[in-house]
Amino acid sequence: MAAEAKTKYDRDFLTSVYKEMAFGRRFEERVNQAYQKGKFAGFCHLHIGQEAVCVGVQRALRPTDYMISGYRSHTQAISKGMDPKSVLSELFGKVDGCVRGKGGSMHMFSKEYRFLGGHGIVGGQTPIAAGVGFAIKYDKKDDIIVCYLGDGACNQGQFFEALNMAATWNLPVLYIIENNQYGMGTDFRRVTSVDRLSKRALAFDIDNSEVDGMDFLKVYEHVGPIVAKMRKKPKPYLLEVHTYRYRGHSVSDPAAYRTKDEVAQFQARDPIATLGEYLKKSKVASEEDLKTWDKEIKDRLTEIEAFADASPKPALSELWDNVFAD
Amino acid sequence: MALIQFREAIAQAMAEEMARDDRVFLLGEEVAQYNGAYKASKGLLDQFGASRVWDSPISEAGFAGLGVGAAMVGLRPIIEMMTWNFGIQGFDQIVNHAAKMCYMSGGQFNVPIVFRGPNGAAHMLGSQHSQSFDAMLTNVPGMKVISPSTPYDTKGLLKSAIRDNNPVIFLESEMMYGLKGEVPEGEYLIPIGVGDIKRAGEHVTIIAWNKMLHVAMAAAEQLVSIGVSAEVLDPRTLQPLDEELIFSSVRKTHRLVIVDEGWDFAATSAQISDRVQRECFDDLDAPVVRVNSLFVPMPYAEDLEHAVLPTAERVVEAVKEVLYVG
Amino acid sequence: MALVIEMPKLSDTMEEGGIANWLKKEGEKIGEGEPLVEIETDKATQEYESPEEGVLLKILVQPGKAVALRTPIAIIGAAGEKFDLAALTGGGTKTAATTPAAAPTTSAVPPKPTAKPVGAPFGTPVGAPFGAVTVTSAQAAPVGVGRVKASPLARKVAAELGVDVSQISGSGPAGRVVLRDIEHRSGSGAAAAQSALVQPGVAGAASTTIPVTMMRKTIAKRLLAAKNDAPHFYLTISADVTKLEAWRQQLNGAAAKAAKAGVAATKVSLNDVVILAASRALKVHPEVNSSWQGDTILQHAEAHVAIAVALPEGLVTPVIRRADALGLRDIAASVRDLAGKAKDGKLSNDAYAGGTFTISNLGMFGIEEFTAIINPPQAAILAVGAALPTPWVDEHGALVVQQRMKMTLSCDHRVVDGATGAKFLQTLVSYLEEPMQMLV
After folding, report:
1. What backbone phi and psi angles, to 5 degrees, belong to A101?
2. E strand spans, A58-112
3. How far apart are the C-alpha atoms of C38 and C46, rounded to whole Å?
4. How far apart are CA B81 and CA B73, in angstroms?
5. Overall number of domains in chain C
6. β-strands B76-80, B114-118: how paired?
7. Is residue C353 within 8 Å of residue C304, measured between CB atoms?
8. Are residues B115 and B244 in the same domain?
9. Is C285 among the catalytic positions?
10. Contacting C residues, span 70-109, partner chain A, CB-CB under 8 Å
11. Per the domain annotation, does C160 fall within a domain?
12. How many CB atoms lie within 10 A of CB A268?
């Protein structure tokens, strides 16, 4: 379309962001359907509703930055650069999975893209992130590590130990709390002494702030300066992102602890719809464009799913691989 | 040959490896300015400076995880646990993260880390400061476990542990830090997974490690007076076990006594016993007899503690049992 | 395009689902993501949302019914669309027993690449312990009825030697047959007979290979060391034991009379007297009752006299502790006791420990004299020969016949010099020839 874009952002940038978030959404929905069809089993924690966070943060990073997360991390891995084929194949437990079927949903790893998992122990990734920050500083680099954690993990002891060391030693770790309001089924306010999780930073004199996680632009504009500052002067940062997961904690969770009204309220602020409205208003894309992109995404996902279906299962001999490095 | 203390063997091994490879660093409570709670890191801060030798907060879970993260991205941490009684605060990071990282990341992220510290009872320290953890630690795939008994073995094995590209647990002993022994002047390494016949003999094999090795040697001396020639075998590495050495010794002597400081239930000695009965069944003239600590939390009073721990007298009785004498 | 809605897996442990309630009627429109049906899982009742927008064309499973996962439950499509149900659903519902392939397709666990192959649990050709044996003798040894307890090693060695382990008396706990029982079996009658009968494949063989027992290995090692380390020299002397023998017969006669009267009294042998005399002589000559310590020589305060006891499997030397303080009958009783226990294999280790001097007597075999090897860390050993009627020239120059007994003292020259040893022997002989001297 020839209409001039009324936005300070580059239209290609916005388009790619929209497509990435929409892809993340459709990917997770496809994953959900695949689970319900019995294509894989075990745990599966969907990121639906939280797309603005991973995409917004990722756009502030560069390829040499590291990322580590908990177990709700399929879209984070994809945003970091990992091929969705390798993520879906891993979910299906296939050889073309990013860790050849050894990890599953909670253990996506990529050395190439510096995505350090994918961890199943709540809060366990937080001191590991401090260790990566330690190594970055040891080598005097200006990379950073983003460490995602949830509202539930904010009460795990290891997190406090990690914050203390990161603050004492000025490690370049950006701790991002995706506060989607609930641990598993527990509203975080019932089990947390503070009402704002950013306050966790106060005990350690760590710089902190909060941002609305349902809006890509807000996240992106908020995180950029934080990261830039951290590169110049390494020290940790704690960012609380207010977000929401539309689905239960995992695919097994019917989420009876929330009201439909509450879900609806957040859905009304859906990040993809919000950005879509912005694109339309700024004349970057039309409704038809959005529909076309959606179809392209769905077609692409069909192809990705077929790839994962066709990928072979690992041979039994692989059972013994990689227990130790050489 | 130089005559040095066990603690000096540790310090020398660490210093040599830190001089050789700038990726190696030491972190733990009191390791830097205090020169180590047991002086095992004496002189290292002076030699290498604060960027290589780090005093940590009392956060075993936190700094074990920090070590894991640093190792995942290319550093080679030595993490000291002041004693392994405290080290179990870090069990999550050691067992769930360090040991499993290479496997669950499909070989992408190995963890070249050493967790070291004193293990087992000292003298009248009470139940929370006296436990031996080798049974728990050898029971996890993905880690190596070393438990030496002499300065010579300690220095050679700690160097190998630091150079190993996998998590290695290194179990020392407060009671042995002052033990003197000869070490060669030049550099030497001892391979992980290779045991040592500390005393050749014919009538019975006694397997013992760490400070129990010295109990076994004392028992062997006592046994001379009744005409029994005991072979004392020190496995040195517990995971993996030098099974071939053990089997060849038992096939020669036909009798096995194992001296193990740990409680008997599911102990490392239970594993050895099972392997021997499986592979050397036809060579055994008697059942395998184990001498373990009595199955109680360690009491404080001196005589009670003495009664709990294996002694040379109990080993002699066990040997008599398998020889059907007295 | 009509879409089949299958019973979805809504929880990780769900295996079948029940239709609780349809939220739309047939013919009603439904949007993408709109709740279509309430499904009962193993954990809760959950809403299931339609993956597509369209019209609910057909409900296939009614409320209240439970079906396996992936069973078709509804059809969604365009309004008024025609569809071939059979073609779409592939015909028939799945039974509740079949669940989609979440379980591994194979149950075999691959062996670890470096693991040893698992050996055959039975029928290993080591040699069945009961295999080649024919029990010919009715008077078999009183063992072996039912299950035989034997150590795996004993069984293996028995099989190698063609011995029936059930015929061996076991010395281990609960009568377990252990290695030494196989090795010592040549001393036990019936078992020996059996083993002579059952030697498969050795007919015509001239030599026998005997495995070296632990005891023999120990003997070999110790005595080799003694011979190597201690510079031996030998002193021989003989004693006129005519008077002694007469006295001894008297003692034993009295003992026999007492026994008939119901009073226990030990008989004494000539060797018992030698032990008595030697122990007293050692007190007079402590230099002979000593041990080489390298930088020092330890002179023992008491005489713990070891006596050599011959067993079929080798020589053992149990110790009579504080022999110098024991009377003759006590010495005799002690010797009986120790020898008996040694033969039964029931000696404790303390019985062998702490000897300061050894006496070995081969007189019962007619040996006139011999030299013995010192038992380290002792400094001497006395070898006693038979007491024989011997032509002798007495102090008057007359030819007489005396009961004479030769004794040879082996000395460790590091500790004992010739003169010292000689003086000891002189004292010893004087006690034997004039026993009353021991009383003063």
Report:
1. 80, 5
2. 66-68
3. 6
4. 22
5. 3
6. parallel
7. no
8. no
9. no
10. 70, 99-102, 105-106, 108-109
11. yes
12. 10
For every one of its 326 residues, what pLDDT tens digit does chain A have, with 9 covering 90 and above?
445 768 899 999 999 999 999 999 999 999 999 999 999 999 999 999 999 999 999 999 999 999 999 999 999 999 999 999 999 999 999 999 999 999 999 999 999 999 999 999 999 999 999 999 999 999 999 999 999 999 999 999 999 999 999 999 999 999 999 999 998 888 899 889 999 999 999 999 999 999 999 999 999 999 999 999 999 999 999 999 999 999 888 887 888 888 989 999 999 999 999 999 999 999 999 999 999 999 999 999 999 999 999 999 999 999 999 999 99
Neighbour tally for A304: CB within 10 Å: 20
Asked if residue C434 belongs to a domain, the reply is yes
C151 vs A314: CA distance, rounded Å:
46
Q: Which of C89, C117, C142 is the last residue of a domain?
A: C89
Pick the catalytic residue from B8, B17, B29, B60. B60
Q: Is residue C127 part of a domain?
A: no
Phi, psi (deg, nearest 5) at residue B143: -130, 155
B306: annotated active-site residue: no
C153 and B283 in contact by Cβ < 8 A?
yes
If residue C4 lies in a helix (H) or strand (E), which one and from where to where? strand C3-6
Please check whether residues B218 and B166 belong to one and the same domain.
no
Q: Are C186 and C280 contained in the same domain? A: no
CA distance B177 to A13: 63
Final residue before a domain boundary, out of C70, C89, C108? C89
Is the bond into C377 cis (omega within 30 degrees of 0)? yes
A200 Cβ partners below 8 Å, 6+ apart?
A154, A159, A160, A163, A177, A194, A208, A238
Contacts A99 to B, Cβ<8 Å: 104-106, 108
CA B247-C220-C150 angle, to 5 degrees, is 45
Burial of A163 (0-12, 13-18, 19+ CB in 10 A): buried
pTM higher than the cut 0.80:
no
Among C8, C46, C112, select the one facing A254 at the smallest CB separation: C46
- Co-location of B158 and B112 in the same domain: yes
The CATH number that applies at residue B296 is: 3.40.50.920
Both structure tokens of C103: 């379980």
Find which of B103, B110, B168 to mutate to test the A interface (most A CBs within 10 Å of its CB).
B103
Does residue B191 fall inside a structural domain? no
What torsion, rounded to 10 degrees, do the Cα atoms A259, A265, A266, A271 define? 150
Contact state of B106 with A126 under an 8 Å Cβ cutoff: no
Query: What is residue C26's three-state secondary structure?
Result: coil
Chain A: residue whose CA lies nearest to B104: A103
Chain A residue closest to B164 (CA)? A326
B192: chain A residues, CB-CB within 8 Å: none
